[in-house]
Amino acid sequence: MSDSFQRSNLAQSMEAQHAELKHALTRSPFRLHADRMVQQGAKTINILQVAWILRVKRGCEMVFMRLPELLASGERLAKDLRNLRDDGQLGISWREYTRDAGERAILLIDLLRESGDLFLEHEAAGCQPVLFYEYEKIMDGRDLPVKSNFVLLRIIPSQDVTVDYTRRRPFVIIPPRAGHAAGVGAHEHDSQLGVALREGHPVYLVSFRRQPEQDQQLSDVAYAEAAFVREVIRRHPRAPLPAIIGNCQAGWATLVMAATNPDLTGPVVINGSPVTAVSGNIGDNTFRYIAGIFGGVWIPMFLCDLGQGMFDGANLIHNFEMLNPERRLFLKYAELFRDVDTTRESFLATEKWWSSFCLLHENEICWILENLFIGNRLGKNMAYLGSERQHVDLKQIRAPIIVFASHGDKVTPPQQALNWITDIYEDEEEIRVRGQHIIYMVHDDIGHLGIFVSSNVVNREFRQVATTLEAIEALMPGLYEMCVKDVQEHDGRKSFSVELVERSFKDIRALNDNYRDEFPFRAVDRASELQAQIYHTIARPFVRAAVTTFTAQACRSVHPERLSRALVSSRNLMLAGFKSISEQVRQSRAKARVDNPFLLAEALYVQHIAQAMIYWRDLRDMMYELTFHSMWNAPLQHYFGDRYEVQARQMTPEKLRSRPDVQCALKMIATGGFIEAVIRMMALLVSDRGGIRRDRLDRWSRVLTQNEPFRSVPSDRLTTITRQQTIIATLEREQAIETLPLLLDDSEERRRAYLVARYVPGPIAEMSPKTIDLLGRFAQVLEQPPITGDVTENPLAQMKAE
Questions:
Q1: CA–CA separation, 275 vs 373, rounded Å?
Q2: I want to staple 443 with a disulfide (CB 3.0 to 4.6 A). Which of 133, 406, 486, 494 is the partner?
Q3: How many Å separate Cα 142 from the centre of its chain?
Q4: 38-71 in b/e burial notation, b at 16+ Cβ within 10 A?
Q5: Per DSSP, what are the bridge partners of residue 205?
Q6: What is the pLDDT of residues 424-455, one digit of tens each?
Q7: How far is residue 400's CA from residue 48's CA, in Å, rounded to a whole number?
Q8: What Cα–Cα distance (Å) separates residue 325 from each residue in 80, 328, 617?
Q9: What proportion of the chain, given as a percentage, has pLDDT over 70?
């Protein structure tokens, strides 16, 4: 019996030890790491499959969508040729077409020669700003204590434009320094400059010289831009703070300047700016993969060494051009060949600023790559300026931020323009509590340059922004989308309806595919830093020793973007006679008839070649994406890059509520007067409705700026009150309503406050049920009889008249 008992205990003991060993093995760090590697591998395979399917599907859809059109055009061409042959007119049409094509070829060659000469002249002159308007230099970055190559220009309006230099808000427009000369977005009458001038605003342009200063850094640029804004403020002491317009690369640079100088700027407008440059969707946005495929930051370091410390902006333009090679290598010149009789002026105007290349110092290009296009530190609120001494905290920006993006922008898709908002803030409530205004617009199809160059966009979206800035500053803090809709009036003219709709982070995240392909950039960032250290230690001393001033200039001269233009200039003796020949051709020009079938054959040929190049481009982009994910999205690369993951500095709701300024605002919930009560009711109305139309925003702006007691209150004091009351309305909604009577001493003040709250939303027929119910609650707690009719006149203006 005892032996049986011992055997039973031994068996149980062995079973327990086996279970314990099994549990230890399944929960061991090795097993956990192996499971994690398997999961990451499965995700990588899924990403590769999705990318492959999306790319192939898009390519097939493009082919099958264009095929019927091409076949129909081919059938039409064959029919026209048969008819000409039967009528005996085939030879005549052919001779007519060959003469027309030959003359167009001569005019095209001469136009390219003229463009090449213009390029050489502009480069020799130092790539001066290419502007439609005259200008005068106000400040030079060379004269500042911290030197830079930036210059502040005042735009001189034309005689038919009246500008109010006393009270109208000045505009400071910053063009992108992304490889080309200053002037993009400012070389036409219908430009950002033209719209702002026609609205009566003083306009300044932050330009830059071709050559940066010795050891120039991005902190020096931010310092210069801040100094320029201070000078503009000094020149317009009675006007609101300047509006800063940053296009493309200048957009994130504007955010850097505003974050490090939060007291300087009025509204900040950034157009097509890649603040979170690693964002995008699978199967799209190939441009962001280039750094991971071609070696990271050490290659720009090598190119800077070849240029004696200077990075050639022609490299950036070349990358941009090769994003759509069919446009750069074929379509651009095919369209120019087709329309050479009518496009001369516009072509030369565009080429003058696009084909003149500026230089960047190594410090600048490396900071851009490490903090945006590889490291993503700016978009995560972890970037620093000046040798890691100054933190660039985008949350410190107090001015309204207006972000303009487009689904048709392949360089800066909406994800890259907007994801920084969801990365650095906890939620939209934190934006409201911090008293910040972020408004975004997303265009349906305009391309990258069209965002700030297209006259249609400038006269539609940008004009609405320019005319709404004062009203936006009066808006309650929060995250909004600006929706601009066309309205056809009875007289045939077109006007626009503008509405600011309150949005949540879900609306921005809906533009993404769950960030499934951003984490590989952690490994890219770490590998880029290691490669840069190896290059700096081993190869850089020998490269720098081998480079002279002559070789640096020679390297820039033979760059494909420069050489291709210099070869078609008058320096090429083979083109010297085309100027006189082209003049003779213009005098005796014989155009082919519009219905000439050989013109259709030419167009079909262009379409076929372009489609073949687009197919090659899509195949290249697919290989880029698959290669990138195969290299950097593998399980081992996840482990390699984990330590380099940039975590955004976020704040939980509990920490947000415990902030001293938030606690101070909540303690003031029963303190204040008429101004606090009215602003609190407006904050509750906007939050309840989820947005505000332009006409309501204008009425609220008039109340704040034209009538007492608001008009006498300094703008910074109104901003503080608005933020405090927004915090109260957001975090303590019910108590905010119940304590309204404590802010208003007598029944007359309560009646006036309630009338203002009724006036701003407009007619009752246009109110939502929630707005009507909330106004009813205001009447109840303030002991006021509900108003059944519309309040169409400003109550404060009426009381002043009385």
A1: 9
A2: 406
A3: 29
A4: eebeebbeebbebbeebbeeebeeeeeeeeeeee
A5: 153, 173
A6: 998 888 898 888 999 999 988 788 777 776 66
A7: 40
A8: 33, 5, 7
A9: 89
